[in-house]
């Protein structure tokens, strides 16, 4: 096994990101205990987290906010994005374009090392004085500038993640540009490759904005500058000894310039995965492949001019507000085109209800629900009501959890035979799917109702002190139990992976898929292909099969 | 695949990678600079210390032209390095000249920053000074990176054609450095 082989790097990304996914999940279970049973002692909490964080087993508010902030950070920056982009992209894209490897394998390896280091730094910040970052995954100033030393580690980690993203995105795009097999024109690329290229471009162009913001915030924290600190700031009626004159909204602009495209960084690879799985398991070519490619490119490009809809309540003025509301509504057009094309692809197909297919099919309504519930948030009048409520949590978790995560599970079930030469057990897979589908919805669906009632998403006690939140308090317990059950179903998946990797049914191309990666042996040897492939047609040849 | 085809692919990948890298630097520096613009546009007063007497003690404008000269010199030498993609004699010498110019620029930035700090004009003193330090520091670090890349080009044992290609890529980087520096000077001192 060569360290700079794209398969090794891709697997390393996949395993590390899965590890961070577990960390993020455990953080969620911890703060969900507090939400379900506010003020109730958690067994063994003091033994694990110490008296400073959980005296008498009760999570302190400071620690609770660390858990929440790091859950978001770990899930987005360290788990889902790296798995979907660098993990799957690095492993599969060279295979799908008939290349023997990456354009810059050593840079790709360096990207992984930087990513792992950034992740460890961020997670290890729990051990720093004052604990980890506790200002939310958005790290808004002035709160973040006044936060504990873990925030500095968070900023350094984010900067490093930007470097890592830049290196891996550069490598991926250069590989697709220069290392395609003879005959593999751009219009013959699998849709997954297009999704990865657009995602890489987004990462490359949007992440530097957050890096710049991180530099400014580091200056504020370490050098005592006031880039994000306004004049006259006081904490507990004590004026801060800073020069002031800065602007906290600048952070929000720079942060959301990355963080909104980041949503598409999560979603676009998922679209690519679902397209590959649907077409192979329904035995139909993608419907309107060209339109889909144009739509995903438009979606990527347009996602960079909608960022300020996260800031509609900052008093940006009606002109700016109108502009960003219009761009937000327009960005839904290519999303709807993509969903429509994916659904129509199924029409007349010979659908095989494999686990991969079930996850891919479930992605469609889950992503649709997440997308549709985003529209009221993109319009100022309804945003005023819904902003910072549980509704927002429901909206983006539907995009990321039952949305993107389901697509990632579909990818694992679909390409596991490519990576190991063995299939995952289908019966265990269907149990995993059914359990995940039910529990995910049981966790996130009530969030919409809680948001519509008006419950704020940042309350340590889940709204115990608010009359309006009273009817929703008991839902938190069922949501927490659903989260625990979701974890149990993931153990089934883990068992399936471990067992099938050793003793699963041998399979070279169990789906009879026609994309180029399946022309290589499973698992692919060094250099990938026994004879370099020459491409003479499109990636999908299922309709020809039927004819 | 023939050796020529492999070399062509590598060259194409390297060129693509370089353009993408430059694009990400533009976005990074562009974000820093737009932060500066937003802060300056939203500020009622924007006092740079050297406009209120310091310029009499230290000719800041002259110093910046001095630094522009160094970076311009690096660009000129990097143009020679590329040889328009054709192998030319004496490439390592031009590389070392680029390194020299870059290191002088960086050292000058550090010296000026230190000199300002010694006067009590530290980044925390005001937002304009914070912007000055951040923008100057960003260019200084990027220039130092260009110098390190030039060292690599000088020392690497590769065929002349390949070295000329690398020189061409290095030239693009230094052209961008000059553009960033001119934007910085314009934004901080002239507008």
Considering the chains and any ligands shown, give keywords for the structure.
heterodimer, A: 547 residues, mainly alpha, Cytochrome C Oxidase, Chain A, two-stranded antiparallel ribbon, 17 helices, 2 strands, globular, B: 191 residues, Four Helix Bundle (Hemerythrin (Met), subunit A), 81% helix
Mind sketching the topology for me?
The complex is a heterodimer of chains A (547) and B (191).
Chain A: H1 6-36, H2 45-49, H3 61-96, H4 105-124, H5 143-146, H6 150-178, H7 191-223, E1 234-235, E2 238-239, H8 248-282, H9 289-302, H10 318-345, H11 355-372, H12 375-378, H13 380-386, H14 390-420, H15 426-453, H16 470-503, H17 542-546
Antiparallel strand pairs in A: 1-2
Chain B: H1 3-41, H2 54-57, H3 60-82, H4 91-118, H5 127-155, H6 160-190
Describe this structure in words.
The complex is a heterodimer of chains A (547) and B (191). Chain A has 547 residues and is an all-alpha fold. Chain A is built from 17 helices and two strands. In chain A, helix 8 (248-282) runs antiparallel to helix 11 and helix 15 packs antiparallel against helix 16 (470-503). Chain A is globular, with a radius of gyration of 23 Å. The mean pLDDT of chain A is 95. Chain B is mainly alpha-helical and 191 residues long. Chain B has helices at 3-41, 54-57, 60-82, 91-118, 127-155, 160-190. The radius of gyration of chain B is 19 Å and the shape is elongated. Chain A binds chain B through residues 103-104, 107, 166, 169-171, 173-175, 177-179, 204-209, 211-213, 215-216, 219, 223-227, 242-243, 245-247, 250, 253-254, 257, 532, and chain B through 1, 9-10, 12-14, 16-17, 20-21, 23-25, 27-32, 35, 38-39, 42-43, 122-127, 130-131, 133-134, 138.
